[in-house]
Write a structure and sequence with these properties.
Length: about 325
Amino acid sequence: MNDTVTLAHGAGGEQTSELIERVFKKHFSNPNLTADDAAVLMPPKGRMAMTTDGFIVSPAFFPGGNIGKLSICGTVNDLSCMGAKPLYLTCSFVIEEGFSMEKLEEIAAAMEKTAAECGVQIVAGDTKVAGKGQVDGVFITTTGVGEIVEGVETSGTKAAPGDAIIVTGDVGRHGCTILLARDEFGIDADVTSDCAPLWSAVQGIIEAAPDVHVIRDATRGGVGTVLYEIAGQSQVGIRLNQTDVPVQPQVKGVCRMLGLEPLYLACEGRLVVFVPAEEAEKVVEALKATPYGKEAAIIGHVTEENVGRVIMTTEIGTQSVLPKPGGELLPRIC
């Protein structure tokens, strides 16, 4: 078999079957994975959540992960934010002619490992091969279905005055990692993406605070964008304590050099959580017992004043309005 993907691999004939057998069936095999036109599945017992997302990250491989791991985490985390246990995923690949078969298998292996970690099954998929230069290496689209835990109802419209705001770990690391991996600024810093599947973290949150109001993953636009989205959706104000926001020293250093705000750098393994204040400490304690919540922290609270705005107490004790996100957020991650 070829060492690179050819147009013949996308033509639907023998080479396509070889590609599916060598890469995708090898890594995605499970009782529900189908070779038919659609998977036949047992439906969730209660309410169902469904989401879809596209991934075109450049570079496709970065410290802490690759586009395959990212595609599983992104969809699993979207389901988890709705209080839904991830059950099934489908995935679609658009692969550039000439893409390394070894790299493609590495991507599939990362997807296999990440899906197994959070107990989700990849049940169907599709493969297309595009001509040289029509795509940048490989693009992946994933769709996921999950079963919402009984009694849990999260929404960006449910933040209430008095709620505590929690992040599940240090912020801005994924965006900083991608920026450095592109090597456009000649900066050498030891930063690894936070890319991770977060269903275990959400389970901890739900057990500690079943009436959690909002769970949102801080992907494009980072924590700052999420806070502005929730402030607008719930028609509330937000007070943020800059000194309480966990940021790795390396990320702080890169941001200071380039004039970037860590709160607006993407995360791929961090949640922003709004819970009643009296339950906040329990939630933080529960998160710290999960694999990806060791640095969970309360970073602010919800107010009735300054509706739609995020007011930040800075490191020197002054009050300032966190600028609204706008224009082209850097680095562009997808």
